[in-house]
Known about the structure:
It is a single chain. By secondary structure, this protein is an all-alpha fold. It is built from 19 helices and no strands. It is globular. It starts with 17 loop residues before the first helix and ends in a 26-residue tail after the last helix. Mean pLDDT is 85; it is low at 1-7 and 484-492. This is Amino acid permease. It is found in: Membrane.
Amino acid sequence: MTEDTDNGQGQIKRTLKTRHLAMIALGGTIGTGLFITSGSAISTAGPGGALVAYGIMGIMVYFLMTSLGEMSTYMPLTGSFSAFSSKFVDPALGFAMGWNYWFNWAITIPVDVTSAGIVMNFWLPHVPSWVFSTIVLVLVFLINYLSVRSYGETEYWLALIKVITVIVFLIVGVAIILGIMGGQPVGFSNFHYKKAPFVGGIPAIISVFLVAGFSFQGTELVGITAGEAATPEKSISKAIYSTFWRILLFYIFAIFVIACILPYTDKNLLNSDVTNITMSPFTIIFKRAGLAVAASIMNAVILTAVVSAANSGLYASTRMLYSQAREGYAWRFFGYVNRRGIPIYALIGTMVVSTLAFATQFVVPQAYLYLTDASGLCGFIAWLGIAISHYRFRKAYTAQGHSVSELKYHATLYPFGPIFAFVLCTIVICGQNVEAFAKLDWSNILITYMSVPLFLILFFYYKIRYKTHIIPLKKVDLSRRTKGEKYDPEQN
């Protein structure tokens, strides 16, 4: 997009290519959820239960991505799904959705940089972890400060490291299963070992939904990047199609390999902490194949994963704050874009909040934990908003006399897709901590579900103050622009 030379303000630049978008979505999901906590899913529900849970969650994420793809290719806006909620459902939903998502990432950034510091202590245990965390925090700020292209390139290469690691792991794992490496072939005996393949029944599978859901969060980043994609009509659909199959293949195949080699009773599968990388299923299996430096290699990969997560988190929260300002939901200066195409004040504002959240661990550690827990369900709330927005978008599109064939990208199995995603996300949110409800552990309930009342407070505050209503289908604004941001499809 061109710069506005009249007022000295630039505009968001469309410089992200298809390969950037694909790797941003892919890198956003391949992280500690796969490398470390995937083992806990096998331990909880058995090999069969883990595969079923990840498979169902993967299908749901696919529906969500195609829903987001249909809306984003039609209307490629920065901070897309918050703007979609405002345009297709209710301005109050867009207001709450945008602030919910911004809060989620702004609070997650310090968690990721803290993890980076812990990971660095594996090699340099005598240096305080906060030193490394501060370096990573400054690094991701500089990457996002330079240009959107620098962010895209950084994510591309960080994601590529993770992808190569997973591919090598799968090859090594298959070799171990077949007995080519590591001694005798292990085969599939673990799938009928003791209570396997299904352990704990349906409740265990539902609990693994939560693990799987957190692992898959980040796929929606491809929607956030829509406003800065060079050719959104083509690149978004390609990125969604290729990314989904890669993610599903990596997760399902990786869990299958881990389950074949390590029985669900193996205590190492319970590890879910970056402080103990030597107990990661990936590390154990690499060691079994004879790779002596497996722990160091996996530690380096985990480091790229948490740096990538922090980098994407700062990008996503900055663009969402920018979008909120353009929609009139935040102070207008957050909508300012410099000549390099960076929403500079939104970037600085987000950075200040993330830095303060990071600093709370030095003053009141418990307060920092509460902030972290408060962001726990924000991602699922965002997914709910995407499902609702897409259902309403398609209804409004046809109600206003348009034909579905006019759309350049079609979501899969509408209306089943968004309805299925809505139901499953609701189940996951409600089932987040059933045990706390059973025991009436109110403090635990408050910590677990803190993000839900925060979202509702935002929603009803805006709804009551501005007396908003659900927009009638005939009056839904299907124009391809948001407040303060123009989009010319001829540019692409």
